[in-house]
Amino acid sequence: MKQALKLFGGFILGIIGGFTIATLGVLIFTDISASKFLNKFFSTEISELAIVTLSNIAFLIFAFFFHVITHELGHLICGLASGYKFVSFRILKYTIIKENNKLRIKKFGIAGTGGQCLLTAPDRPISEISVMWYNIGGVLANLLFSTITLLAMIFIDMPAIIFAGLAIFIIVGYLFALINGIPLKISGVSNDGMNILQLNKNINSKWAFITQLRVNALAQQGTRIKDMPAQWFEPISKLNPKDAIQAAVMIMTASIPLDNKDWKKAIQMHEELYQNSKDIIKLLNIEVKCELVFLYLMVGENQKARELYDDELKKYIAVYKKLMSSKMRLLCATTLIIDNDRTKAEEILNQLISNRNKFLMQGEVEMDIDLAQTALSTTPQKATEPIPGSFL
Fold this sequence. Notes:
This protein is α+β, with helices and mostly antiparallel strands.
């Protein structure tokens, strides 16, 4: 019933959205007044209204998918032209990834995003790597197709129903360009326009952006983070956790001792990150909490783990366990130690192993399987005093 209500609600919103955008298109791109349009609308037969409404909904759906794909293709083309190399291309939950010189399709989604084009930066000094074209490519693609369509509407006569549909297409395209091109932060995450400003202004942000791309490329190919070049994780200067790009690389860096099973150092680095939780965006902060729960369980600090293992974290794990192998590894540890259910914990590990090829980041999968096996095969020991020093 809940799913049916969601579908019905989406249908109603689609009708409202289609009608609203079509109305705006007619008023903007024609000389028809608002009163004349409304009089025409209310004098139209119900069957004709139904056809127009359904047509507008269809154009709205088509425009959305077209501009999502076009946006990501813009990133791809401009990135490749700038010397970047292909890693993966995602639309909604379907990702094309290059593995062993072959293209494969995997199911992987990120909440709040319609698509994503991941490339890896060329092997050049940071100062010689361009970040503008890769980031602006999507906006340029949306602008290009919307403008071509607008010119076609101006110079070509066409039926009213097609005219209204193309008006929807144009408005959606320009909205995509504005939302991604005007520098904004949405839930703390920078859009393409903000990325261009930040990366060109802050050398540490540019370094972190390129490091993320390189780490993701190797992780998708199956390399564990502990086996990646150490110099990749050496920042140019002190990192700022308020910058989401820099904070993400700080978390990646903290994963190196985790992958090496150096529990004390991993705890120290993650605790330092968690102390800056007010500065780090919520999504990254939840990731830090997840790793701290696992690490505390591995050293016998079960009470600390229980305090962090709240309802919000449980919900987050439930949502992402099919997309991120680290959540299966954490679920294995909490089931084993907090729930005291070894049989179920072993089932979770076996499920992770059997589904290993369904995850995008194969390097993370290898690490998570190893760490989950360690959790099942060892008795957690009490943590000793923390290592002095700080990387923040």
